[in-house]
Design brief:
Strand content: under 5%
Largest sheet: none
Number of domains: 1
Structural class: mainly alpha
Oligomer: single chain
Number of helices: 5
Length: 139
């Protein structure tokens, strides 16, 4: 292969890898995620519902946030591992994010008293949310 062609191919591969973003491919729980349970979790006000910040294709919910990106089509844009990573610790994808880390307890700022020293979601809830969000492949 000519040096210029090889260089161009390496640049293309590097760009593709960088665009993918951080990924946590290994599930956190032994039981597979359940999309129906995940849909319930993202709507649960006692668990910091995703709807506070994100618009989602859940028409029966009257109020959707607009602080974060809309989640319609997220399952087509991100792999389950990328979704999981963003739920567990969104700062790995965006260090300046205001999204909370749903499955991390260390190195956090301004943590509400009920959540100090514990995660917002359980490992199973993370997997259920990942399973639900992965089904959102349409716009």
């Amino acid at each position: 292969m000519r040096p210029l062609a090889l260089f161009a191919a390496l640049l293309l591969l590097a760009g593709t890898a960088a665009a993918a973003g951080p990924s946590m491919d290994r599930p956190l729980a032994d039981r597979p995620g359940d999309p129906a349970r995940g849909r319930s979790v993202v709507r649960d006000l006692s668990k910091a519902t995703c709807l506070i910040c994100h618009a989602m294709p859940i028409p029966e919910e009257p109020d959707h946030g607009d602080v974060g990106p809309p989640l319609a089509g997220v399952g087509a844009r991100l792999t389950p591992g990328e979704i999981r990573q963003r739920i567990v610790d969104p700062t790995t994808a965006n260090p300046a994010t205001v999204m909370p880390a749903y499955f991390r307890t260390e190195g956090l700022d301004r943590v509400g008293a009920p959540f100090r020293g514990r995660t917002i979601y359980t490992a199973q809830e993370v997997e259920d949310v990942v399973a639900f969000l992965a089904t959102l492949t349409g716009e």
